[in-house]
Amino acid sequence: MIFREATREDVPYIVEMIANDKLGKLREDFKDPLPQKYYDAFQNILKDSNQELIVLENDLKEVIGTLQLSFLQYLTYQGGIRAQIEAVRIREDQRGKGIGEKLFTWAINRAKERGAHLLQLTTDKKRPEALRFYEKLGFKASHEGLKLHF
Question: Which of 8, 65, 80, 136 is the most buried if burial means most Cβ atoms within 10 Å?
Fold first, then answer.
């Protein structure tokens, strides 16, 4: 398996994985051709050195997983860096094979390489199986998260 930065050619595969669950189906617009807004977002991610959009390829060079790491510089923790992991997805036919754990192991190591003192994530309360998975990996529900949608 190969972890690498996503390319423009990977964007449809990434969006397909993001759209392929009960919540993603409600908020994504996966179709062929893929709407330009996804490519625009990809370009913005690509230009930002604090963003890493990663794909995981299998031995056949197929994209089977993805995640995005954001590195946030802030003043607390003595000017620390925190890493935020988002949009972790495994292709549907590859789930249950330990690939998610491999993605998280990679992300944890990458966050440490970049000097982050913690890796954080949020998960929707409508995804209890994801919460159990994250807790199994050692993540703790230490804070209450809030969102304001516009």
Answer: 65
Average pLDDT score over residue span 20-39: 92
Q: For residue 9, which of 60, 63, 48, 90 has the smallest C-alpha distance?
A: 63
Ranking 40-49, 106-115, 133-142 by mean pLDDT, the lowest is: 133-142
For residues 62 and 59, give the distance between their C-alpha atoms in angstroms, rounded to a whole number: 7
Task: Flag whether 129 is in a domain.
Answer: yes
Name the packing angle between helices 36-47 and 11-19 (round to 10°). 110
Tell me the C-alpha to C-alpha distance, in Å, between residue 86 and each of 8, 54, 83.
19, 11, 10
Q: What is the number of structural domains in the chain?
A: 1
116 has a pLDDT exceeding 90: yes
Q: pLDDT over 70 for what percent of the chain? A: 100
Range of the domain at 67: 2-136
Q: CATH number, domain at 10?
A: 3.40.630.30
Q: Does residue 41 register a pLDDT over 90? A: yes
Residue 141: inside a domain, yes or no? no
